[in-house]
Amino acid sequence: MPPAVCVRRAGPGDLDGLGRMVLRCSAESIRDRMHGGTRRDDLLREMRDTVLHGDGTVLVAAERHRTVGCLELVRRAPGAPRAEMALLVEDDRQGRGIGTRLLDAVPACARSAGIAVVGFSVEAGNGRARRLLRHLPAGGLQWQWQQATLEATWHVGALR
């Protein structure tokens, strides 16, 4: 039986584990997450900035003490009620519900950070991500295809 997965907000102590997880990911997984970019250094810099200084949140999925996935919510303007979402799960852990667990944590995490709307995009060829989106509540989701990319807006609920 695989170890239980814990999803929680990342802190500075998670940066090394995030770095090791990104290094274990294939170029294809990085490309799908970054929509064409394969530079791990850029991805790690963005996550580090979000955890330490950014106006956003990084969630980590961990098995015991090993980070196996992450989800970023990044505001493009300080204090904005909208954030952009990006998800990455280690290749050999994909298809095991980790992405679903990370997505399940988004509404509460976003609302606690003052985020009411989460935007994201998925390329048409990214079947894994398209299947994962079936787990999102249809009532709060608006989407449209723009060329070969699904552009979506997820209304995660009223701010408290």
Spell out the key features of this protein:
single chain; alpha+beta; seven-stranded mixed sheet; 5 helices; 7 strands; globular
Range of helix content: 25-40%
- Shape, please? globular
Work out the strand percent.
25-35%
The helix-strand sequence is EHHHEEEHEHEE
The average pLDDT is: 86
User: Low-confidence spans: pLDDT under 50, at least 5 residues?
Assistant: none
Protein name: N-acetyltransferase
Domain N-acetyltransferase: 5-160
Pfam family, one: Acetyltransf_1
GO molecular function, one term: acyltransferase activity, transferring groups other than amino-acyl groups
Q: How would you describe the overall organization of this protein?
A:
GO terms for molecular function: acyltransferase activity, transferring groups other than amino-acyl groups. Residues 5-160 form the N-acetyltransferase domain. InterPro entries: Acyl_CoA_acyltransferase, GNAT_dom. By secondary structure, this protein is an alpha+beta fold. Helices cover 32% and strands 31% of the residues. It has 5 helices and 7 strands, in the order E-H-H-H-E-E-E-H-E-H-E-E. It has helices at 15-24, 27-34, 40-52, 98-112, 127-132; strands at 5-9, 56-63, 66-74, 82-89, 117-123, 141-146, 149-155. A 7-stranded mixed beta sheet has the order 1-2-3-4-5-7-6, with helices on both faces. Helix 1 packs antiparallel against helix 3 (40-52). The radius of gyration is 15 Å and the shape is globular. The mean pLDDT is 86.
